[in-house]
Amino acid sequence: MSNYVYGPTFAEMRDPSLLPADLREKVLAALHGAPLDPINLFNITWKTPRDTVRHLLLPSALTGVRAPIAVLVGNGFPSGSHKVGPVYSCLIEKQLDGRIEPGKHVPIFPSTGNFGIGGAWGGPRMGYTSMVVLPEEMSRERFEKIRAFGADVIATPGCESNVKEIYDKVNELKRDPKYVSINQFEEFGNYRFHYGVTGEAALELATWLKQERGVGSGRIAAFVSAMGSSGTIAAGDRIKQVHPGSATVGLEPIQCPTLYNVGFGGHRIEGIGDKHVTWIHNVHAMDYMMCIDDQACLEGLSLIQEGAEVLASEAGVEPAELECMHGTFGVSGVCNILGAIKTAKVLDLGPDDLILTVATDGFDRYPSVLQKLAEESGPPTRERSLRRLEVFHRATTDWVQEGTREVRTRWHNQKYFTWVEQQGKHVDELRALADPDTWIEHQAKIPEVDAKLVAARGDLAALSV
C-alpha cells in the first residue's frame, strides 16, 4: 500500500555498501543534514560512511588491565542510540505480517528510555504516531527527546526498575484496538537485530582490529553487556557460533540484582536492571552474571566528561583519546566498561584476548544526571576526579556468578513470574525457550524477513531519485 514506508533489510543494516550508490550518497547526506527525513532509516547501521565499524578502543591507561577492550559506539545511529535498530526491526516485521498499518494503528513503546526515544524517532519516520510509556524518574533529557521527535509520552510511577507499572499502562491502552504494543522485552525482532547486526559488527571489528591495528588475535574472548531488554546481549549468541569458547557476560546493578540472587530495588543506571528476566533473553547461553555499583557508574561518567585534566596528568590518557571518549558514553556505557574490566580480571585475560562491549548512547541525554550528582556529592574538583579514577583502576571482582547448568535453569525459571503469571504467556512457551533449537529458529527467520521486505518495497533504486 502507498502509505507504507520501508527501510533496509538486515543484510543492508549489516553492510550498507549493498545499497545503490546514488541512494547511499543521499542517505549519508541526510544523517546530519536532514536527521528527520525518513531516508535515515537506511542509516540504521553500525557502519561509518567509510564502511568501518563505529568503535572506540579504550586506553589501557583508563582500564588498567592487559586485555584490550573495544566499545561499539551507538550514538551515531539515528535518534542517538542503537536502540532505534530494534525499534525498526520490530516495526517492519509487524508491518510485513499485516499486524500494524500507518494511519490505522498507534504503536506503543514500553521503555525506560532509549527504546522509547528510538520509537519516538522511528515511528513517525515510518508514518505512525508513536506513544511512549516510561517511568517518571528517567532523566529530563529523555522526555525532551521523545517529545522533540514527535511522539506522545505517558510517565508511569517509579524509576528504572519499575517495569511492571509500564506493562500495566500498556495493557490498559491496548483495550483500544488502535494501539499495538511494540514490547522490546518480548519481541524477537529485537533479538534478531542484535544477533544479526550487532553480532556481525562485533565479529567484523575483531578482525579489523587484528589486521589494521595489530590488536588482539582476531578472536573475541568475551562479549560484555548490561541487560535492559536483553536485546544487545543477543550479539553474544552470534559471536559464540564463530568463536566457540567466547564468554557472554551479563551485567546488572548491585542495587537491583535480579538474576544474581532474585534481588530487587531501585537504581540509577538508566537503561538496564529492569527487575525482571526478559522473554527474549537467551539465559542458557550466558556464561557469567556480574553486578556493578550504580554510584561507580555515575562517578565514572563524571570523570570521563569532567575530569580530562586528571585523566591526562595522572593516568596518561592521550589528548586524542580524551577527545574520542568525551560525549561518547552514558551511564550504562560506563557500566559496560566497568563490567569489561571486571571480566578481564575474573577471567585473567591478556593482550591477545579482545573484550567487546557497547556504548548504547552518548552523553547528550545525561547532563541532568551529572547535575544531580554534583548536588549530592559536590562539584567535580580535581580531588574528586582523582578519587573517581579509582573507580576504573580498582574495579572489584566480587558480585560474580558463573552460569552453571543449575544457575541457568534458575535464570530461565524466573521468567515464569513476569511472563506466565502476569503477561499471559503459556508455560509450554516458556519451556520451549530452554530448547536451543527455539533460538536457532528465531535466528533463521532473518533471511525470510529480508525476502518479504525486498518483495514489498519494490525498486530500491527509485528512492535515490
How many domain regions? 3
Structural class: alpha/beta
- Looking at CATH, which topology of the largest domain would you report? Rossmann fold
How is the largest sheet built, in terms of strand order?
A: 1-2-10-7-8-9-11
- What is the number of strand segments? 11
Alpha-carbon Rg, integer: 21 Å
Shape: globular
Distance between the termini: 20 Å
Averaged pLDDT, please? 95
| CATH second-level architecture of the largest domain | 3-Layer(aba) Sandwich
The level of helicity is 40-55%
Per DSSP, what share of the residues sits in E-state strands of 2 or more residues? 5-15%
Summarize this, please?
This protein has 465 residues and is an alpha/beta fold. The protein has helices at residues 10-14, 21-33, 60-63, 84-96, 114-125, 140-148, 163-173, 188-213, 235-242, 258-261, 294-306, 308-313, 319-325, 331-346, 367-377, 382-393, 405-413, 415-420, 427-432, 436-457, and strands at 55-57, 69-73, 106-110, 131-135, 152-156, 179-181, 220-226, 247-253, 288-292, 354-359, 400-402. The strands form two sheets. Strands 1-2-10-7-8-9-11 form a seven-stranded mixed sheet, sandwiched between helices. A four-stranded parallel sheet has the order 5-4-3-6, with helices on both faces.
Q: Keywords, please?
A:
globular; Rossmann fold; 20 helices; single chain; four-stranded parallel sheet; 3 domains; 465 residues; seven-stranded mixed sheet; 11 strands; 12% strand; alpha/beta
Structure, explained:
This protein is α/β, with parallel strands linked by helices and 465 residues long. Helix 4 packs across helix 5 and helix 11 packs across helix 14. The protein has 3 domains: 30 residues, no CATH class; 248 residues, Rossmann fold, CATH 3.40.50; 100 residues, Rossmann fold. It has 20 helices and 11 strands.
